Amino acid sequence: KAIEKAIYDSALGVGVDNQGSHILIKIPALTQERRDQIAKQVKSMGEDAKTQMRGVRQEAMSETKKAFTAKEISEDTHKANEKNIEELTKTRSAKVDALVKAKAEEVMKV
Fold first, then answer.
1. Considering only CA atoms, which of 97, 82, 92 is closest in space to residue 45?
2. How far from each other are the two terminal CA atoms of the chain, in whole angstroms?
3. How many Å apart are CA 104 and CA 98, to the nearest integer?
4. Percent helix, strand and coil across the chain, each to the nearest 5
5. How many angstroms separate the CA atoms of 70 and 64, rounded?
6. Is pTM, for the whole model, over 0.85?
7. Which helix (H) or strand (E) holds 17?
8. How far apart are CA 87 and CA 84, in angstroms?
């Protein structure tokens, strides 16, 4: 009963039919409107991922700056760390963009 209620309350747009010993979930065919909603949600999730990456980048930049300021690493190492952090962030951000684009196109296919 709790599982049925949780699925029903989740606003997934699926039908729930409790058969006693099992629960039947009816997934309706995707309409164009629903495809648009899913594509929008995918893009939002991609933006969230990129925001988190920027936060991690900022944290990593702060750590390398602290280490440089405390004379734990040289200036060359500090600059190399910053460059590596930027490159990694750019490549991962581009990968997220590519995944979002591919998934949005997949959802929009009829």
1. 97
2. 35
3. 10
4. 75, 5, 20
5. 10
6. no
7. strand 15-18
8. 5
